[in-house]
């Protein structure tokens, strides 16, 4: 009998053979096999005392109870398993088969090639802190990895050089622009990735005032463009206004919009006339010319809007500009958020609806956060509030305002007022744009998950009502803001840093919000895009056929899947049911 902890074995009959009975001398008698000498046991054969039972009866032990054949078979099996494990390890380390991307050795080769192609020290970085910073975002809680290298191109030709090296070394490429996107869009790739930082390509190349258009590099920021037009005294502006710091390339990548979408539409309207794009094979194309209209074939510009850097790298863009009109800002307070939201459609459908540039909702908690964050010169009433930006000359604004005032009153508004000065109007608007920062400022030490959904405008009151109720029941701290004129709203959900349980609660609440929106014929994202965070909802929202079409386009343009892999397109195994 021998024992292992908790188990005892009793052999019921004597073994027919023992190590001593096995002859090691070769003999070729009839019916006998050639017996090979066995390897010596890995420890002294003189005494087996003190050797644990499992070693004592191992196939290398002199006390092994089986025949020589069993011994040889067991030994060979163990050697074979060891060999397979070792081969797998080396194979994974040096030749990762994951979509055929560069092995660690090839990543090093790619970095050397990039350094040789861009000898200026500031153009290529492998600083570990930077690699981590550029591969992750404080605003995203999706899986991430640091990049392997950051490269800073200055021109389209530079981008072509980078793409060619990436293809040669099979290195994934991730374009990084304003880094304000919210769904893990520019996360690094675990096997290694080249981060292409477009901050050096931020120039305005031409302003064509007579045609109301402008050509710029894709790293230009929308705020800088508008500031330049203002400084030059040109009565024009670019109306897409996503997060502060966003760039033209990123805005094209995410298919953004913003507060002005009520009046001017989104990135998918015709604000981008022509794009210069470096394709995944290094070829440079222009999608159109500068003409305001074109019916020459289908719209290849649109192919890259919302493609999240997965189909090509936009290096230059021709933007259509809008005339700058005088505006005034008004706000209306409501007893609850449903009443506020229900007033919106009436205002937009009124004869003055086309003078409304923006309608934004900030719920009572958001108003309180703005006051608490201390970024305002006077505290605002803490109630669910609609902000309106109204366009026109003074008499036109007066008429529109009277109409809005009457409509909001009908929907239960207790107070309606204009910003008394330009400065106050600007401050009000900045507070809306910086709502996320105000929320973070009011609850310092906490982290914030931002999400957006969009439904047909008439369904918005139901969505907002159910969501507020749900969030209250979860006990999470949250604020709500929305571009409600488009049926689009954002929830900012707060949780304690390092509190995984609360983070899981937030993630569940976001999932419920998205499903609620889909059930109301809405979308999982009105403007922030898919990235990593929303790709699991795409099949449910669009249907398998549409998603397969998107994937086919991706495979045709980028057969090696090198441009921003892992974003936008749902993973094959995660397909959910079609709608
Ligand atoms: C406070 C705050 C408020 C926000 N408000 C809004 C809002 O009102 N509306 C809205 O739509 N969004 C909003 N956002 C989200 C964000 O501003 C937008 O998604 C914006 O369009 C991202 O631009 P970016 O330059 O920061 O892009 P990045 O974050 O750098 O990149 C976004 C995606 O585009 C790709 N990309 C970047 N550059 C290029 C290029 N040159 N060619 C091809 N692909 C490229 C990237 O690889 C990535 O997939 C907000 C964000 C914050 C933090």
TrEMBL record:
Q: Where is this region: Disordered?
A: 22-49
UniProt-listed InterPro entries: FAD-bd_oxidored_4_C (IPR004113), FAD-bd_PCMH (IPR016166), FAD-bd_PCMH-like_sf (IPR036318), FAD-bd_PCMH_sub2 (IPR016169), FAD-linked_Oxase-like_C (IPR016164), Oxid_FAD_bind_N (IPR006094), Vanillyl_alc_oxidase_C-sub2 (IPR016171)
> Which GO molecular function annotation, any one, does this entry have?
D-lactate dehydrogenase (cytochrome) activity
**Where in or outside the cell is it found?**
Mitochondrion
Keyword terms, alphabetized: FAD, Flavoprotein, Mitochondrion, Oxidoreductase, Transit peptide
Q: Which residues form the FAD-binding PCMH-type domain?
A: 141-324
User: What EC number(s) is this enzyme filed under?
Assistant: 1.1.2.4
User: Which spans are transmembrane here?
Assistant: none
Would the keyword Oxidoreductase be found if you checked this record's keyword annotation? yes
Reactions performed catalytically? (R)-lactate + 2 Fe(III)-[cytochrome c] = 2 Fe(II)-[cytochrome c] + pyruvate + 2 H(+)
Statement: the UniProt record of this protein carries the keyword Protein biosynthesis: no
* GO biological process: one example: lactate catabolic process
Q: Read off the Pfam families from this record.
A: FAD-oxidase_C, FAD_binding_4
Annotated Gene Ontology cellular components are:
mitochondrion
Main location class: mitochondrion
What cofactor requirement does the entry state?
Answer: FAD
Q: Which family does it belong to?
A: Belongs to the FAD-binding oxidoreductase/transferase type 4 family.
Q: Per its record, how is this protein called by name?
A: D-lactate dehydrogenase (cytochrome)
Which taxonomic lineage does the organism of this UniProt entry have? Eukaryota, Fungi, Dikarya, Basidiomycota, Agaricomycotina
């Amino acid at each position: 009998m021998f024992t292992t902890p908790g188990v005892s074995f009793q052999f019921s009959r004597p073994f027919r053979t023992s190590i001593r009975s096995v002859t090691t001398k070769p003999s070729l008698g009839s019916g006998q096999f050639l017996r090979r000498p066995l390897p010596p046991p890995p420890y002294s054969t003189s005494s087996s005392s003190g050797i644990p039972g499992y070693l004592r009866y191992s196939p290398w032990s002199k006390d092994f109870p089986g025949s020589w054949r069993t011994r040889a078979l067991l030994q060979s099996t163990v050697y074979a398993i060891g060999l397979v494990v070792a081969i797998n390890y080396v194979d994974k380390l040096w030749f990762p088969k994951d979509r055929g991307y560069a092995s660690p050795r090839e990543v090093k080769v790619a970095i050397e090639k990039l350094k040789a192609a861009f000898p200026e020290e500031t153009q290529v970085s492998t600083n570990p802190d930077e690699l981590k910073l550029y591969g992750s975002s404080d605003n995203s809680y999706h899986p991430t990895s640091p990049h392997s290298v950051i490269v800073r191109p200055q021109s389209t030709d530079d981008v072509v050089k980078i793409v060619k090296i990436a293809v040669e070394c099979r290195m994934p490429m991730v374009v990084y622009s304003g880094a304000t996107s919210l769904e893990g869009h520019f996360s690094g790739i675990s096997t290694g990735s080249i981060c292409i930082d477009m901050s050096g390509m931020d120039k305005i190349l031409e302003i064509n005032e007579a045609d109301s258009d402008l050509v710029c590099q894709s790293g230009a920021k929308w705020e800088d463009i508008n500031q330049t037009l203002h400084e030059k005294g040109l009565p024009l502006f670019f109306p897409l206004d996503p997060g502060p710091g966003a760039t033209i390339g990123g805005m094209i990548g995410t298919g953004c919009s913003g507060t002005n979408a009520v009046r001017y539409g989104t990135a998918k309207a015709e604000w981008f006339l022509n794009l210069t794009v470096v394709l995944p094979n290094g070829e440079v194309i222009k999608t159109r010319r500068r003409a305001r209209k074109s019916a020459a074939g289908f719209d290849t510009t649109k192919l890259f809007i919302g493609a999240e850097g997965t189909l090509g790298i936009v290096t230059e863009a021709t933007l259509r500009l809008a005339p700058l009109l005088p505006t005034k800002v008004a706000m209306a307070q409501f007893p609850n958020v449903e009443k506020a939201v229900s007033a919106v459609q009436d205002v937009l459908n009124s004869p003055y609806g086309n003078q409304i540039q923006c309608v934004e909702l900030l719920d009572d908690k958001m108003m309180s956060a703005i006051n608490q964050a201390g970024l305002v010169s006077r505290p605002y009433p803490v109630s669910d509030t609609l902000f309106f930006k109204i366009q026109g000359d003074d008499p036109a604004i007066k008429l529109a305002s009277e109409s809005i005032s009457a409509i909001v009153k009908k929907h239960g508004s207790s107070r309606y007022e204009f910003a008394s000065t330009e400065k106050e109007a600007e401050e009000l608007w900045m507070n809306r744009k910086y709502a996320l920062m105000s929320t973070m400022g009011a609850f310092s030490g906490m982290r914030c998950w931002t999400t957006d959904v969009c439904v047909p405008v008439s369904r918005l009151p139901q969505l907002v009502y159910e969501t507020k109720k749900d969030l209250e029941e979860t006990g999470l701290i949250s604020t709500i803001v929305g571009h409600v004129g488009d049926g689009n709203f954002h929830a900012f959900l707060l949780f304690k840093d390092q509190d995984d349980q609360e983070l899981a609660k937030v993630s569940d609440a976001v999932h419920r919000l998205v499903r609620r929106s889909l059930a109301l014929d809405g979308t999982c994202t009105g403007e922030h895009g898919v990235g990593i965070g929303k790709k699991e909802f795409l099949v449910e929202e669009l249907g398998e056929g549409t998603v397969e079409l998107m994937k086919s386009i991706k495979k045709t343009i980028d057969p090696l899947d090198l441009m921003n892999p892992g974003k936008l397109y749902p993973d094959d195994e995660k397909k959910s049911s079609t709608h």
